[in-house]
Amino acid sequence: MNFDKIRRFLQLLEEVQKNKATDIIEFELKETENLFALITLGEMVGYANPPVSITLSLIPYMEREVILMTNRAVDSNDKLSDIASIMEVE
Amino acid sequence: MKYIFFMGKGGVGKSTLSSLIAYKLAKRGEKTVLISLDFAHNLGDIFNMKIGNKGVRLEEHLDIFEPDIDRWVEEYLRNTRVLIKENYKYVSVFNLDNMLNLMKNSPGIEEYAILHLLYEKTKALADMDYLVVDMPPTALALRIFALPFITREWLKTLLKLRKEILVKRERIANVHGKEKFDFAVDEHEDKVYRNLKEQEEENAFLLKLIQGANIIPVTLPVQLSFKETERILKKLSEFKLNVPFVIVNRVKNDEWKKGCVCIEDKEVKTFDDFEREIKFQDFDNIDSEILQL
Ligand SMILES: Nc1ncnc2c1ncn2[C@@H]1O[C@H](COP(=O)(O)OP(=O)(O)OP(=O)(O)O)[C@@H](O)[C@H]1O
Ligand SMILES: [Mg+2]
């Protein structure tokens, strides 16, 4: 295999990695922006938080989210991944 | 079934008038339910009997209910706790008790309790002709009417977000193998998604009920009460709710106003007095007016 081919292969690999990385970031960004909009502009649709009835009805089925939320509170330094973890971004 | 809600400032005559109208509809042979959604029930005082949660059948066609709203909230929170206990594997329900206790006083819980009681009663009494509702005083009544509209928007957003999450999970599960993950990936499996769907169904029912109902503001012939009625009308029209007319209650003969449904101020002690004494000056009978709605 010649050196050129190897280099092109490596370039391609890097390209893919980069895309993958930006895909994830773009995704996180989008989710975070949504969340941000919801939290800050929620008032415009009536309440800053969903009506308590929605929350109460959901709680019994949201153990996973409750855990995510508590973990976040414990070891929170990276805000973006905190929010991402609330939104369950893997 | 047709729905008629009486609302207005404290003490304007909501309970008296909703009782009277329900009674008259029932006398005409319409199967009628009268329900108080006010915390401070006073239908019992008007009919001079104990009514309560289970309700009372008065005459052949009139059923009256005074559901205990606080008790319902407490029961609901207890049930939620039981469900949490059943469903949670890692988090102990004790850790959530503080939060559940706080939620008893959360703004919005009363509105929901009242709407849910209305939902249950309406479902259970689907074959009746009329449901006449004695609403709590204005501020709470308006929040009750607003809640299904707000809830609709939130559920739309949350369902969309949840769907996105499920799609992402599915993708990840497809790459790494489903066995590795203990979360649901499709809409039927995911209890959160299913719960949101159930909520959407109940909310859609309530929205339809409210949008199809006739809401009758009651006012006294005094400036303060008129001002409040103006605000009520403005708010209700923002939500495009039906207001067929306003009742001006306790009008003295000399301040008679045409164009409104007015009710004279009468010396009344008992419901029977009331039934006998009350005359509607604009219409022979307000119940025949209501029958045309
Ligand atoms: N047209 C009328 N003539 C004479 N008395 C009236 C009339 N309408 C109502 N009342 C009296 O006014 C008082 C208040 O009426 P009612 O309890 O129906 O008001 P309400 O709007 O239900 O009050 P609350 O907000 O406290 O529930 C009662 O004592 C009732 O008998
Ligand atoms: Mg009353």
TrEMBL record, chain A:
It comes from the Bacteria. InterPro entries: DUF7990. Pfam families: DUF7990. This is Uncharacterized protein.
From TrEMBL, chain B:
SUPFAM superfamilies: P-loop containing nucleoside triphosphate hydrolases (SSF52540). CDD domains: ArsA (cd02035). InterPro entries: ArsA/GET3_ATPase-like, ATPase_ArsA/GET3, P-loop_NTPase. It holds the Pfam family ArsA_ATPase. GO terms for molecular function: ATP binding; ATP hydrolysis activity. Residues 1-267 form the ArsA/GET3 Anion-transporting ATPase-like domain. Belongs to the arsA ATPase family. This is ArsA family ATPase. It comes from candidate division TA06 bacterium.
